[in-house]
Design a protein that fits this description.
mainly beta, Lipocalin, 10-stranded antiparallel β-barrel, 11 strands, globular, disordered N terminus
């Protein structure tokens, strides 16, 4: 067995449940680092959850309270209004499946800044194209990203946005590249520290980096 061969108990086709990440990756999931695959497998069963705790080396937005100007458009729990180092964070990843619907992974991230906790929430569900996920961010889910899923040479999970939409009621408007954002997220594992790692950056072609965070964490079933 190679070092990146996952245990049978984490197979995405397990009758016990599934994973939005492993399903999107398909056969490429076999190349994930075992610990990254364990995290990507998620709760596994609809109705279950995984709790994540860690510390970001750096987290937040350099635009800080200017992000409040976007609230009427994007809604709450999407942008944060601080940018600090050594930020503790807590995440709850919950797996759901509505009757006859696809798997959905809901994430509620709490960033504990010195001024108080701020939340960034989103939901992931299968994408419209092979190897992709749809990421609806914020409590109002008005911003939707198409994320391309891949495995890096180190066996880490990488998500890169390719298209962006705004959703208002029944309307779904695709944004041109100049007005969209590009998200790049890598979930990895540090063998020396024996901890999972995450690195995320969201950039606007006009404004530059609007959100970033990177750090280490551990995870456990809720």
């Amino acid at each position: 067995m190679s070092e990146h061969t996952p245990p049978d108990s984490l197979n995405a086709s397990s009758p016990l449940g599934g994973s939005v990440f492993l399903n999107a990756l398909g056969a490429a999931a076999q190349r994930l680092h075992p610990e990254v695959r364990r995290y990507a497998a998620g709760p596994g069963i609809p109705g279950a959850a995984v709790v994540v705790d860690g510390v970001f080396d750096v987290a937040g937005s350099r635009f800080r309270k200017l992000n409040l100007l976007a609230l009427p458009i994007v809604g709450r729990n999407l942008f944060v209004t601080a940018h600090e180092r050594d930020v503790p964070f807590h995440v709850v990843n919950s797996l759901t499946r509505s009757q006859g619907g696809p798997l959905e992974l809901h994430a509620d991230r709490a960033f504990t800044f010195t001024g108080g906790a701020q939340h960034f929430v989103d939901v992931l569900l299968p994408g419209e194209r092979e190897g992709t996920l749809l990421n609806r961010v914020g409590s109002a889910r008005r911003v939707e990203l198409e994320l391309r899923c891949s495995v890096t040479g180190d066996g880490h999970l990488r998500l890169v946005s390719e298209r962006t939409w705004l959703r208002f009621g029944g309307l779904r408007i695709r944004l041109p590249a100049l007005l969209s954002v590009r998200a790049d997220v890598v979930d990895g594992f540090d063998d020396a520290a024996q901890q999972n790692t995450v690195r995320a950056r969201v950039r606007s072609p006009i404004l530059g980096t609007v959100l970033e965070y990177r750090g280490r964490f551990t995870h456990r079933p809720a």
